[in-house]
Amino acid sequence: MLTTKDNILSGHVVFKLVDEKGLPLDIIVLELRDKGMGFNVLEFIESACKAKWTKERILNMLLYSGNKIDTELQTRIELAIKFYLK
């Protein structure tokens, strides 16, 4: 069983499911949402950057995952990617 903190699954775990197991992020998001959960996006970004994913790949993955992302959140995601890619 995966452990969570405040119904937030580790972004590192979610990244492994996507990158290593090939599970679609949108399906993971739907399953988590059905259970009243979410995942740590910053940890997901950190893992993706360590795995040498490009900024565009990370952004596309998050933007089309079924998450509601407004302009402010997209800006924060881009800043996080920039931070981890340095």
Give me the number of helical elements: 5
* Secondary structure: number of strands: 2
Q: How much helicity do the residues have?
A: 55-70%
Label the overall shape: globular
Describe the structure.
Helix content is 62%, strand content 5%. Helix 1 (11-19) crosses helix 3 (41-50), helix 3 runs parallel beside helix 5 and helix 4 runs antiparallel to helix 5 (71-85). A two-stranded parallel ribbon has the order 1-2. By secondary structure, it is mainly alpha-helical. The longest helix has 15 residues, at 71-85. It contains five helices and two strands. It has one domain (8-85).
Keywords:
86 residues; mainly alpha; two-stranded parallel ribbon; 5 helices
Give the helix/strand layout.
Elements: E1 8-9, H1 11-19, H2 25-34, E2 38-39, H3 41-50, H4 55-63, H5 71-85
Parallel strand pairs: 1-2
In a few lines, what is going on in this structure?
The protein has 86 residues and is mostly helical.
